[in-house]
Amino acid sequence: MPDAFGGEWLVPFRGRNHSGAFTQNFLWKRQNVYVMDNHRAALWCWLQHIDPKQRYSLFHVDQHYDTLVSRMTTWLDNLPGDWGLGIDEYLARKVKHLDIPQPLPLFGWDNYLSIFLAVFGNAMDAAYFATHGKGTTPKCEHMTCDLWGLPSNLDYWLNESPAPWIFNLDLDYFFWHGADNDPPRCMMSEAYISRLMKTVSVHLSSGKISVLTIAISPEYCGGWEQSEAVLDLVLKPLGIEFALPR
Q1: Do 108 and 116 form a contact (C-beta atoms < 8 A)?
Q2: H, E, C per residue of 61-100
Q3: Nearest 5 degrees, angle CA 123-CA 126-CA 131?
Q4: Buried/exposed code over 136-161 (b: 16+ C-beta within 10 A; e: otherwise)
Q5: Which domains are seen in the chain, by residue range?
Q6: pTM for this one?
């Protein structure tokens, strides 16, 4: 369904609800840029723009690694038979675990990337991870990127690989988490975010970045209002106007 911003709602907006591990409240795209609340849809988005049998590179910017492997055998046993499935089929795909009474969605925010790497990792040319070190370390050869050096070094790193890039961004990367009763706060300046995304914009325009996925992760960014405010800063250098319905 097209909208006034020149994009398309792949999952129509369902409200500012809790996202958690599996709930997808929206998925919106404009060309090869995707915006979502829950990162679990990212794997499907990538496969719309890359041939995973050909060389590609991955740049992951996120608080978390998103590479859980605790039930990998079961997940791999329940993969779709055809990766050409639609987004609704992808999100609805379920798996039954012996120790959990009800089936759960196969793809969650913490395992979509580890599943992708397990299935298509042999074609990966390079992997860069800019994270806060949260979660299971990826089971692949990768470079760890420094938080403060990311904007100044991103252009150099993206030029290091001749393969097309998947650029995977979670807005929670920009947020600081204090004590349990202290809400997350954005710790990056507008200048930091702008410089980072201007570089992303250049490489999107040149075709070096084949697909950009952005998760706003409201629970890890102090709520929808803070996530949406940072999303505006992220999209501005890309020349993309987008706002969730009120």
Answers
A1: no
A2: ECCECCCCCCCHHHHHHCCCCCCCCCHHHHHHCEECCCCC
A3: 120
A4: eebeeebeebeeeebbeebeebbeeb
A5: 8-238 (3.40.800)
A6: 0.96
- Do the beta carbons of residue 41 and residue 202 sit within 8 Å? no
pLDDT in the model for residue 101:
82
**Crossing angle, helix 190-206 and helix 150-158, to 10 degrees?**
10
Q: Is 232 exposed, middle or buried (0-12, 13-18, 19+ CB in 10 A)?
A: middle
For 173, other C-beta atoms within 10 Å of its C-beta total 25
Q: What is the pLDDT of residue 52?
A: 85
Helices in the chain by DSSP H: which ranges? 42-47, 72-77, 87-92, 112-120, 150-158, 190-206, 224-235
Q: Which two tokens stand for residue 110?
A: 């913490």
d(CA 133, CA 43): 21
Task: Look at the block and give the residue holding tokens 């795209």.
Answer: 29
Contact 233, 194 (CB under 8 A): yes
What is the pLDDT, as a whole number, of residue 1? 59
What residues of the chain score a pLDDT lower than 50? none
Alpha-carbon gap, residue 10 to 90, rounded angstroms: 12
Please give the full DSSP string across 121-148, using - where no structure is assigned: GGGEEEEEEE--SBSPPPSS--EE--TT
pLDDT for 207: 97
Give per-residue burial for 87-123: e unless 16+ CB within 10 Å, then b: beebbebebeeeeeeeeebbbbbbbbbbbbbbebbee
Distance, CA of 29 to CA of 171 (rounded, Å): 17
- Alpha-carbon 229 to chain mean position: 18
